[in-house]
Amino acid sequence: MKATLITPPTIEPITLSELLLHLRHDSIEMSDAIGTAQSIAPGAYDIGEYTGAAVDIFGKSAIVNLNAGAVGIGGKINCKLQDSDDNETFTDWSGGAFGEVTAINDDRIHELEYTGGKQYVRVVAAVTVAACKLSADIITVSLSTAENDLLNSLIATARGYVEDATRRALLTQTWDYFLDEFPSGYYITVPLGNLQSVTHIKYKDVTGTETTLDADDYTVESCGDQCGPIVLPYNKAWPRFAPYPSNPIAIRIVCGWTAANLIPSMIRTAIKMYAAKLYANRGEDVIGASVTQDRTVDALIRNYRLWREF
Fold first, then answer.
1. What is the largest distance, in Å, between two alpha-carbon atoms of the chain?
2. Phi, psi of 195 (to 5 degrees)
């Protein structure tokens, strides 16, 4: 397969905290493990929507507390979580939102665990009918140790092993896929599974002149978690040209699951197990248990392998 990674994933399928729990590694003091960050400051808020500060929760577990004070007569508080990979583009977290707060359930703390896979989280509060008192805190729990850098690198290595074994891109990443010629048929199937989008299709002729194929001249089909095809619409044809000698056709694709929690649990478990093996055997494999562990990892990911050859 002729392909080049352009943009690697910004997050990993499992967090450092998840690996540490898998390893039963708990050497850090509680005072160092727990942190609290304010997303929405305490106060009386008039009718309107209020967007809280974002908190970086990379490698940590997160619990969000909505501290609901007294609500005005008929007042209501509706809070939700938004998450982001880059601290710029936020979307509503698909995992849920706080229940509505009214006079029936005010003056108490409402708790919501964030189980998504993004790096940044913030709280958005909507106050309706009457002014209400509230605040929102994001509590992070980190089981980090002095071996953080090592463990994070092992997670990335384990992900790479599983990606190679399954022929997949597990989380959102950008690749260039190269062809020597356009096919004789009406579609091109691209590798790595979970096709999200095609950024462009470019082809270079023998003189080195590069042309970008108009996006209206092809259709992209995601095909779920399988290898997605790029299809010619009715009455369209692939370009005819004298190709450049090396990689004349470049297809830039974005592929992979969009969030860690969408990756099948068997794949995530396999990554934990392989990372644990790398942690335990920091040199040569230990004969016996290591072989059994490899077989378990391979059994977990076997059904997720993409068998098509590229």
1. 75
2. -65, 120
- Whether residue 190 contacts residue 199, with contact meaning beta carbons closer than 8 Å, is answered with no
Reported pTM: 0.68
Between 2.60.120.660, 3.40.190.10, 2.60.120.620, 3.30.420.40, what CATH number should domain 29-141 receive? 2.60.120.660
pLDDT tens series, the chain, 310 aa: 899 999 999 999 998 888 888 887 755 555 667 889 999 999 999 999 999 999 999 878 899 999 999 999 999 999 999 999 999 999 999 988 999 999 999 999 999 999 988 999 999 999 999 999 999 999 998 765 667 888 999 999 999 999 999 999 999 999 999 999 999 999 999 999 999 999 999 999 999 999 999 999 999 999 999 999 999 999 999 999 999 999 999 999 999 999 999 999 999 999 999 999 999 887 666 555 555 668 899 999 999 999 988 8
Domain boundaries, the chain: 29-141, 173-255
Secondary element (H or E) of residue 291 = helix 289-301
Close Cβ partners of 177 (under 8 Å, ≥ 6 residues apart): 1, 2, 3, 190, 191, 250, 251, 252, 253, 310
**Alpha-carbon distance 68 to 143, whole Å?**
29
Spatial distance between the Cα atoms of 51 and 13, rounded to a whole number of angstroms: 28
